[in-house]
Amino acid sequence: MLNKEKIIKPIAYIRTEFPSKFGIPRQSSLKNELFGTIVFEPEYCHEEAFRELKGFSHLWIIWHFSETEKGEPSLTVRPPRLGGNRRVGVFASRSPYRPNSLGLSCVKLEKICSDRKSCSIPHCPLGKNLCKKQSGISLLVSGIDMMDKTPIFDIKPYIPITDCHTDASEGYTAITQKHTLSVILPKNIDTVIPSEKLSRLISVLEDDPRPGYRHSEKDSDKTYHIEFDMYDIPFKVKEDSLIVLDNIKIN
Amino acid sequence: MLNKEKIIKPIAYIRTEFPSKFGIPRQSSLKNELFGTIVFEPEYCHEEAFRELKGFSHLWIIWHFSETEKGEPSLTVRPPRLGGNRRVGVFASRSPYRPNSLGLSCVKLEKICSDRKSCSIPHCPLGKNLCKKQSGISLLVSGIDMMDKTPIFDIKPYIPITDCHTDASEGYTAITQKHTLSVILPKNIDTVIPSEKLSRLISVLEDDPRPGYRHSEKDSDKTYHIEFDMYDIPFKVKEDSLIVLDNIKIN
What we know:
homodimer, mainly beta, Elongation Factor Tu (Ef-tu), domain 3, six-stranded antiparallel barrel, about 30% strand
């Protein structure tokens, strides 16, 4: 009936430790130890745009599934949490393959950063050197589920009275079995990856980053690669263990 | 840095009892008795796009503040709940005057409608006659805060594990005083407005639809008009009462 197109423009982008899609948590707020830094376009890089924001603990981010936009969106999708075999309607899922490719995430606001000189946050994915080159405002957030450099279209405060529904029924997502693996690391890994980054990497690996339909495979010779921060990390899965191989590369 | 524009297209629009902005609740989920019917564009009007949706009680709607898009967005806004005088950053508010004019609402899913013949929902804003002309799927939702015919860009299920944060701090929104008025109706009003619609209208009026900075005015001769459904309803405010005048018009 209306069918009016509209042009939207990124207001910001996010820096995270995920240079590619593989291994990114399937929803926001699932891995609170994963951080992101939201860096704003110059026109929004003013303290006044964030006045009174620090009173809110959580934020909504409306963002762009920029990596999955190719191809026609389908009316049904196969959520990974259902093993990748069962189809549900696109509007009954948060799948990236959807009309308009808009993502919605709830993240925790950790810090509003403007003073670059005194910044010494260990988990900021920008890192100290990159951070000091940055001017203006950025937001450090946790519980992210976004790829590095994802474009962001809007940020809104989480308002409990409208957003927190303790009585909400969770549909098919309630029946998801918690599937985890124990992670076996090569002996020398702490000489390659600093311990703080390593603990975040382990939390991602124990959730089994393989595609949902592979989760039942107990013993395959297939080597997977996850990109995390600057590292390319090869692994295999045997029984209920994820074994990190020792030929880790630094990109 | 990226600044890449993107074109988005409405997937649906919503029918509500608010033909204009004045009187619309300031957030979703505040008035659960207010209903809306989401009507889809032909390409999404297929049952499969909604498969397994009925297991979810709540939905997210990403929509277009189509009426407030004119003019440059400001970096600060004056939330009505702060009396309309205090400025906060645009990213610390859900104000309609914002970059990209994107709205975000949480609504309750009441019914997935496809069988028009047996439809007899009293509060569907489509009404029986309009509904029977409609083909395909529509969604009846409650707790709406949208104008009639608002374009919708996406619909996603509410997933409690990621969306429900009982520990969230609510910033300046916590200090809002609950301000209500007692509503005085003209004697003959139930011969003009059916009782079911009237109870919804009262719930809107008792929240004082006047602009925030007018809330402290105890006695003004100013006549306001609220449009609700097909009615134009004039009212005045004296002390703590909202008095509906008797020259109600039917548009």
